[in-house]
């Protein structure tokens, strides 16, 4: 390692000096405060060379135990906490420091000291934040404190020559690439919310910025608690050849109490007290209450078991009202209620439309502040539904806060919350990121969130981050956190939220063309410079020994498995085993085609037996089809049009609707089935076992067992269909009473008993008439594999081969694990990333972005350097091919919107003009995508094509023609805030394209991009921030 083992070095040094008056390591702990120093070898060696032994040891001593300054540059109106004093002591020595502490603990005080130092030495300081809204807020705070403060966010530029500049991290990165004067003048660079470095899409920006920052600058990193803070500090120390301190505290300034509130609960269960003691007794009482509520209930009208989700929805409204009323009665307000969907925030707030938590005087003050805030808007914008509907709620001391709101509405809510005029705030997770707005109590309305890929339960790190909003420093002696849990909650998962650690900081580094081309502008810098210096490589280098040990262990295990068979026998076993594996893979491919609504829906007649498999619901069992319909989405089922376009239970769809459904993807069509309750999602509390129908017994016994076995109606997607039977039970789906429900369940069990594991199936070729080319190819492959398997089946069933096959399977699985670890090892050795870098260079040469021999940047490359908010290669090709030159201004704005990150809308109907433009993108993207596939830079061409979204095209067209916001909002299912956010991103991209055109001297195109940008900038979409 090039970063020295500080503990060992300092111990050796102090022992040599026989000086026992100081600690013999680099840690000083008091009041949960931990201080460590990462020292690079190069710095330490230089210190040894330039200092005498006594001076060297004294310097190390001061480095490990920095004294608090006798005359601090900045005075505070409050007593500093130990961790703040330690961090300020490091800054007083003009050394870098990372502060890792809980939310609302006072990390900003450390940053302010660094800013004060820069002012004293008449040097410059940069304060970076991850989002523009937080930059605006910090600008306002620092402007009031220091005066000489500027702001650069892309949207807004104010006082750029100021001593202190507040900006987003992307802006600082761009300035560093361009060689700004900041490189020479900056003394401190402050990175707020440094844990954004692990963000999958933007995290690489933080790594680029840190690597590119000047070595003479000192750093202040502010972060929530992260377990591997010292690892990060080691990387910074090695990258910039300077010591980096870590000041870590897990002490909260305001202690927290954690309560559980179970579904249909009658009170709170204190499970973690202010001293962090966990109450097992109260935890078990709460779980017992949940179990008592999990008993299945039958709907008297239909005879169906009411699912847990339905029971939860029925009781959820009362539970939320009960919790909030209880908190208000105990004077536990203000309250932040965290929900994991914007729709849920709104629906929960609506529950309290008859409540009023404000006095008449407070309500009047809310109205004054609100009207003052929106008076700068155009009259038509002031009349928008969201603005008109939100004021009556705010006046009652209730608010919502999520990304779907207009930015100006979010800001006025933040201001009202800070002024104590909001007593209950329903917010999404984003409210816990950056914004320092604590409350006395935090409530979790559940623990399941959608993370962009799937619905999952939150982890301890997320819970810690959000619960940190409880407890107001200087106001509350204690903060309260209440977790509302449903009857299907996993007790151990809940327990882990209280005992788990915060998330480790992990690199999300990735290469991109803009980065590589910008690096070529630097003299004496190789293209792999960022890769070699990245946190990603630093972390992976540390993993190498573990992978090497694992690989060695696996090779030993594989070597110990001796099959004791000759070559011919091993060949037979290998062929049989590989055939089984191939059959499984090909069967999955066939199932994917067969389950297309076009093929499967005509056979899903009510009463049809189908086998459904869903790993999340832990189901793989036969059920009876009742109906099918379009999957519910926000487009066809939300608060604003609840019920529209949705069929009620047992209401049949028309033939024309069936035809439309057959055109949809398999994951957009739901099937309603009857499934034995014993096979459903249930946790340990359910304890229902499926009936054993493989043994003897007569119909009377079956009926007796089935009578008490509840069946429930469950929804599945077409993708979950595992098998389709030829059997159809005669039912009347229009009305199924309790008796009919029991009969269906009894018939299902009887069929399973009669056929056991050989229920007759539809043949997808002979019966379902599937004639897709790929399907028929797979079908032939399966027939060949079946013949191979059948040929060897009798041999393989012999005792000799059965045991050998078991050992062969073990060996193959160990080989798979070995290959997996070898891949991880190669990745950690940078072999995969290095290969990607080489292929990206080949692509840039082939497309003439850099020269063939000496990697000099060409005209195309200069254009791509200016584009960082969209696909730089695609946009550059569009400029060079003349596509933009042939379009008018509105068309330019519309086609560029496809490169802005925005939600993909299923079944989007584009206008003829938009379709034509999107076809241009698709053709060019196909050409570029095939090149990427050729050089193994992407795996799937279709996934690459899906990265271009036409969701905004027609909206941009109408807006550029002068349409009102109300008119364009009615054209899409996007929330208002989502429209504003994507339009602002579009403006940023258009400005980059304007600079790109300027770079190559194309004045005509530069003017077009500039005018397209100007067309967007009007009314509420570009309303100024209230913080400015």
Automatic annotation (TrEMBL):
<dbReference type="InterPro" id="IPR048392">
    <property type="entry name" value="MTR4-like_stalk"/>
</dbReference>
<dbReference type="InterPro" id="IPR027417">
    <property type="entry name" value="P-loop_NTPase"/>
</dbReference>
<keyword id="KW-0378">Hydrolase</keyword>
<dbReference type="GO" id="GO:0004386">
    <property type="term" value="F:helicase activity"/>
</dbReference>
<feature type="coiled-coil region">
    <location>
        <begin position="544"/>
        <end position="571"/>
    </location>
</feature>
<dbReference type="InterPro" id="IPR014001">
    <property type="entry name" value="Helicase_ATP-bd"/>
</dbReference>
<feature type="region of interest" description="Disordered">
    <location>
        <begin position="1"/>
        <end position="28"/>
    </location>
</feature>
<keyword id="KW-0547">Nucleotide-binding</keyword>
<dbReference type="InterPro" id="IPR025696">
    <property type="entry name" value="Beta-barrel_MTR4"/>
</dbReference>
<feature type="compositionally biased region" description="Low complexity">
    <location>
        <begin position="17"/>
        <end position="28"/>
    </location>
</feature>
<keyword id="KW-0175">Coiled coil</keyword>
<feature type="domain" description="Helicase ATP-binding">
    <location>
        <begin position="88"/>
        <end position="244"/>
    </location>
</feature>
<dbReference type="InterPro" id="IPR012961">
    <property type="entry name" value="Ski2/MTR4_C"/>
</dbReference>
<dbReference type="InterPro" id="IPR001650">
    <property type="entry name" value="Helicase_C-like"/>
</dbReference>
<feature type="coiled-coil region">
    <location>
        <begin position="808"/>
        <end position="835"/>
    </location>
</feature>
<keyword id="KW-0067">ATP-binding</keyword>
<keyword id="KW-0539">Nucleus</keyword>
<feature type="region of interest" description="Disordered">
    <location>
        <begin position="638"/>
        <end position="658"/>
    </location>
</feature>
<dbReference type="InterPro" id="IPR050699">
    <property type="entry name" value="RNA-DNA_Helicase"/>
</dbReference>
<feature type="compositionally biased region" description="Basic and acidic residues">
    <location>
        <begin position="1"/>
        <end position="12"/>
    </location>
</feature>
<dbReference type="Pfam" id="PF13234">
    <property type="entry name" value="MTR4_beta-barrel"/>
</dbReference>
<feature type="compositionally biased region" description="Basic residues">
    <location>
        <begin position="638"/>
        <end position="647"/>
    </location>
</feature>
<keyword id="KW-0347">Helicase</keyword>
<dbReference type="Pfam" id="PF00270">
    <property type="entry name" value="DEAD"/>
</dbReference>
<dbReference type="Pfam" id="PF08148">
    <property type="entry name" value="DSHCT"/>
</dbReference>
<dbReference type="Pfam" id="PF00271">
    <property type="entry name" value="Helicase_C"/>
</dbReference>
<dbReference type="InterPro" id="IPR011545">
    <property type="entry name" value="DEAD/DEAH_box_helicase_dom"/>
</dbReference>
<feature type="domain" description="Helicase C-terminal">
    <location>
        <begin position="322"/>
        <end position="517"/>
    </location>
</feature>
<protein>
    <submittedName>
        <fullName>Exosome RNA helicase mtr4</fullName>
    </submittedName>
</protein>
<dbReference type="Pfam" id="PF21408">
    <property type="entry name" value="MTR4-like_stalk"/>
</dbReference>
<dbReference type="InterPro" id="IPR016438">
    <property type="entry name" value="SKI2-like"/>
</dbReference>
């Amino acid at each position: 390692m090039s970063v020295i083992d500080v503990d060992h070095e300092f111990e050796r040094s102090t022992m040599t000096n026989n000086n026992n008056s100081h600690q013999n390591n680099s840690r000083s702990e008091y009041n949960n405060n931990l201080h460590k120093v990462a020292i690079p070898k190069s710095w330490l060696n230089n210190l040894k060379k330039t200092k005498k032994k006594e001076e060297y040891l004294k310097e190390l001593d001061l480095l490990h135990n920095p004294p608090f300054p006798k005359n601090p540059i900045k005075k505070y109106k409050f007593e500093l906490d130990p961790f703040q004093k330690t961090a300020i002591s490091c800054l007083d020595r003009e050394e870098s420091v990372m502060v890792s502490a809980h939310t609302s603990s006072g990390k900003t005080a450390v940053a302010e000291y660094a800013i004060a130092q820069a002012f004293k030495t008449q040097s410059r300081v940069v304060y970076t934040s991850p989002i523009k809204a937080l930059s605006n807020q910090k600008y306002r705070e620092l402007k009031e404190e220091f005066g000489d403060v500027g702001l650069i966010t892309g949207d807004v530029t104010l006082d750029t020559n100021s001593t202190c500049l507040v900006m987003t991290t992307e802006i600082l990165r761009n300035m560093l690439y361009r060689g700004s004067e900041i490189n020479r003048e900056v003394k401190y660079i402050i990175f707020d919310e440094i844990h954004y470095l692990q963000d999958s899409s933007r995290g690489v920006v933080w790594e680029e910025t840190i690597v590119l920052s000047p070595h003479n600058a000192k750093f202040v990193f502010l972060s929530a608690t992260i377990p591997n803070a010292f690892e990060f500090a080691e990387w910074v120390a090695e990258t910039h050849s300077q010591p980096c301190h870590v000041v870590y505290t897990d002490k909260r300034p305001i202690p927290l109490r954690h309560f559980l509130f179970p579904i249909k609960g009658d009170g709170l269960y204190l499970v973690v007290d202010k001293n962090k003691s966990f109450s097992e007794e109260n935890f078990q009482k709460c779980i017992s209450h949940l179990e008592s509520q999990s008993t299945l209930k039958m709907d008297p009208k239909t005879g169906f078991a009411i699912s847990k989700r339905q029971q939860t929805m029925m009781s959820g409204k009362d539970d939320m009202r009960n919790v909030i009323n209880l908190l208000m009665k105990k004077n536990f307000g203000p309250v932040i209620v965290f929900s994991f969907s914007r729709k849920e925030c709104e629906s929960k707030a609506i529950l309290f439309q008859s409540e009023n938590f404000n006095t008449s005087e407070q309500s009047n003050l809310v109205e004054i502040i609100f009207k003052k805030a929106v008076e700068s808007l155009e009259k038509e914008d002031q009349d928008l539904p969201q603005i008109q509907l939100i004021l009556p709620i705010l006046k009652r001391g209730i608010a919502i806060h999520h990304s779907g709101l207009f930015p100006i509405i979010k800001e006025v809510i933040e201001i009202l919350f800070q002024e104590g005029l909001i007593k209950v705030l329903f917010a999404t997770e984003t409210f816990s990121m950056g914004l320092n707005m604590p409350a006395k109590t935090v409530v979790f309305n559940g623990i399941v969130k959608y993370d962009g890929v799937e619905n999952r339960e939150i982890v301890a790190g997320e819970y810690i981050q959000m619960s940190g909003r409880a407890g107001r420093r200087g106001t509350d002696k204690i903060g309260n956190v209440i977790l509302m849990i449903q009857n299907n909650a996993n007790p151990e998962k809940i327990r882990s939220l209280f005992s788990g650690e915060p998330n480790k900081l992990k690199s999300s580094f990735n290469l991109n063309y803009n980065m590589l081309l910008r690096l070529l502008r630097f003299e004496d810098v190789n293209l792999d410079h960022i890769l070699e210096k990245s946190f990603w490589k630093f972390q992976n280098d540390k993993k190498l020994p573990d992978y090497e040990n694992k690989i060695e262990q696996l090779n030993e295990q594989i070597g110990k498995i001796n099959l004791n068979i000759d070559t011919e026998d091993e060949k037979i076993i290998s062929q049989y085993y590989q055939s089984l594996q191939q059959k499984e893979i090909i069967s999955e491919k066939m199932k994917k085609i067969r389950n297309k609504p076009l093929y499967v829906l005509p056979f899903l007649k009510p009463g049809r037996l189908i086998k459904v498999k869903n790993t999340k619901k832990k189901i793989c069992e036969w059920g009876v089809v009742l109906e099918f319909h379009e999957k519910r989405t926000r487009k066809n089922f939300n608060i604003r049009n609840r019920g529209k376009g949705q069929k009620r239970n047992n209401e049949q769809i028309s033939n024309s609707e069936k035809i439309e459904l057959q055109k949809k993807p398999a994951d957009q069509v739901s099937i309603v089935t009857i499934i034995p309750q014993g096979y459903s999602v249930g946790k340990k509390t359910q304890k229902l076992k499926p009936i054993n129908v493989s043994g003897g017994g007569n119909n009377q016994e079956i009926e007796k067992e089935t009578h008490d076995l509840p069946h429930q109606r469950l929804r599945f997607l077409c993708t979950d269909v595992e098998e389709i039977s030829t059997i159809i039970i005669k039912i009347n789906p229009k009305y199924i009473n309790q008796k009919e429900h029991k009969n269906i369940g009894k018939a299902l069990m009887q069929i399973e008993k009669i056929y056991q594991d050989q229920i007759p199936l539809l043949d997808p070729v002979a019966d379902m008439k599937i004639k897709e080319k790929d399907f028929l190819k797979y079908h032939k492959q399966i027939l060949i594999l079946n013949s191979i398997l059948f040929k060897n089946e009798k041999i393989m069933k012999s005792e000799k081969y059965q045991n050998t096959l078991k050992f062969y399977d073990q060996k193959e699985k160990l080989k798979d694990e070995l290959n997996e670890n070898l891949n991880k090892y190669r990745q950690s050795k940078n072999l995969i990333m290095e290969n990607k870098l080489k292929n990206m260079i080949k692509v840039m040469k082939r497309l003439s972005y850099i020269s063939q021999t000496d990697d000099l940047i060409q005209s195309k490359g200069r254009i791509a350097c200016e584009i960082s908010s969209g696909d730089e290669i695609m946009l550059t090709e569009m400029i060079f091919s003349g596509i933009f030159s042939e379009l008018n201004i509105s068309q330019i704005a519309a086609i560029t919107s496809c490169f802005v990150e925005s939600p993909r809308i299923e079944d989007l109907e584009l206008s003829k003009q938009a379709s034509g433009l999107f076809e241009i993108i698709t053709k060019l993207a196909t050409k570029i995508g095939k090149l990427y596939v050729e050089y193994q830079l992407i795996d799937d061409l279709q996934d690459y094509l899906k990265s271009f979204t036409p969701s905004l095209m027609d909206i941009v067209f109408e807006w550029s023609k002068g349409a009102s916001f109300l008119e364009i909002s009615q054209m899409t299912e996007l929330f208002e805030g989502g429209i504003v956010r994507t339009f602002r991103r579009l403006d940023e991209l258009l400005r980059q394209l304007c600079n790109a055109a300027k770079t190559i001297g194309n004045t005509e195109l530069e003017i077009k991009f500039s005018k397209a940008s100007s067309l967007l900038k009007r009314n509420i979409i570009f309303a100024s921030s209230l913080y400015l």
